[in-house]
Amino acid sequence: MGEEFISHGITRTEIEATGRVFGRKGEITEIVPIITGHINETFKVVYRNGDAVEKYTFQAINTNVFKKPDEVMSNISAVTEYIRNKYVSMGESYDRRVLEFQKAEETGLYYYIDEENHFWRVYKYVDNASTYNEAPNTDILYNAGLSFGKFQMLLSDFPMDTLFETIPDFHNTAARYNQLDQAIAADQAGRVSEVQEEIAFFEERRKIASRFNDLQKEGKLPLRVTHNDTKCNNVLIDDQTGEGVCIIDLDTVMPGLSVNDFGDAIRSCSNSAAEDEKDLSKVYFKRENFDAFARGFLEASSQALTPCEIDNMVWGAIMMTLECGSRFLADYLNGDTYFRTTRPGQNLDRCRTQMKLVSEMEKMFDSLNETVHTEAAKHIGK
Ligand code: GN1
Ligand code: MG
Predict the structure, then answer these.
(1) Does residue 382 lie in a domain region?
(2) Structure confidence at residue 237 (pLDDT)
(3) Ligand (nearest to CA of 268)
(4) Closest atom, ligand 1, to C-alpha of 249
């Protein structure tokens, strides 16, 4: 019998060898693939060492997406160390509150490239905490908002110019429109003729795409250290207390815009259904989820935000949803080469859910904007 593949060409032997490189001792008793993300390969790995049980998260970074993974790890190690030190200086414990990456024993680096050319990193598994693709109640979203807002605050004085731009133009929506244009022109998978309605939807909104570029050029939206992938399932929620424990998936931490961090979270947490739901009648914008996340995020971060940032939070939600939809459509047209898919048409379904959410947010714009201002006003000037 051949070697057992645990997931996408990754074997148990490879995980065992990687563990040894990162100084893990003992016997592996469990390897569980974690399949929520669309990009990297992630595993929970449990070791038994005598009576002690130790748990780690192993991740193989997708080097097709992250062309310079060493720079990704440089950003992540700098940012996590900074947050650790912040907690220490505030006299607080950082246990479970920030990811703890392990160094490879021989090189002292936070990553290791193995013979299969897989780029590995390992961090301590955070126990008794879960992520939610669809939150079971709005308290969780309030807490997720608090966590992302705090994350922003903790990094507000981080020396931004030490960070690499690991994916150039990641949330430059105008550049994403160019990528969609290229995908349409190339028509790699011969699918352009079947998505005319979707193409028209993005075309109608082309003007929006450069809004933040313009505001940034005019000096109205400041660059900050941002997470850039603030899906609500990137906050670990404590199983007992329901509070946010720790922010995960730090791959895209780099200079960016607060409005996009707020926006991407709203994109994910205000969807009533799964991101790839086929039945659009199940997809709608959940107002109570928006309210709860906005309340938490603005409670934690309003004091550090400028009036222009507050004015543009709802635009951020529309922008990130529009952008993500355009990326799904472009990937569909390119033959599904970027986002992991598990069935045909999945990227197109993902694109359509985003379109529905954009349309609903557009209709609710004034009322959403009012909520943002009301929540922010509670904390400004305190
Ligand atoms: C990707 O892999 P995951 O789920 O963390 C993507 C995000 C998208 C998201 C859509 C590096 O994130 O930008 O918003 O899918 N990450 C990258 O679900 O492209
Ligand atoms: Mg991610």
Answers:
(1) no
(2) 97
(3) 1
(4) 5
- Count of domains in the chain? 2
Report pLDDT for 380. Answer: 84
Closest residue CA from atom 18 of ligand 1 = 38
In a domain? residue 132 = no
How far does the centroid of ligand 1 lie from the alpha carbon of residue 231, in Å? 8
Check if 65 has its Cβ closer than 6 Å to any atom of ligand 1: yes
Q: Is 38 in the pocket of ligand 1 (CB under 6 A)?
A: yes
Q: Are 32 and 43 in contact (CB under 8 A)?
A: yes
Question: Range of 323's domain?
Answer: 138-377
Is residue 178 located within the same domain as residue 326? yes
Average pLDDT score over the chain: 95
Last residue of one domain, picked from the residues 95, 127, 159: 127
Instruction: Give the global pTM.
Output: 0.94
Q: What CATH number is given to the structural domain containing 61?
A: 3.30.200
Q: Ligand 2: distance of its center to the CA of 37 in Å?
A: 6
pLDDT per 10-residue tile (average), the chain, 382 residues: 71 95 95 90 95 96 92 96 96 95 96 93 96 93 97 93 95 98 98 98 98 97 96 96 96 96 98 97 98 98 95 98 98 97 97 98 98 96 68
Q: Is the shortest distance between the CB of 46 and ligand 1 below 6 Å? A: no
CB-count exposure of residue 373 (10 Å: 0-12, 13-18, 19+): middle
For ligand 1, atom 13, which residue shows the shortest CA distance? 229
How far the first Cα of the chain sits from its last, in Å, is: 67
Cα distance between residue 225 and residue 229, in whole Å: 12
Question: Does the CB atom of residue 276 touch ligand 1 within 6 A?
Answer: no
Which amino acid is located at 315 in the chain? W
Domain boundary among 72, 101, 127: 127
| Residues facing residue 58 across a β-bridge | 43, 122
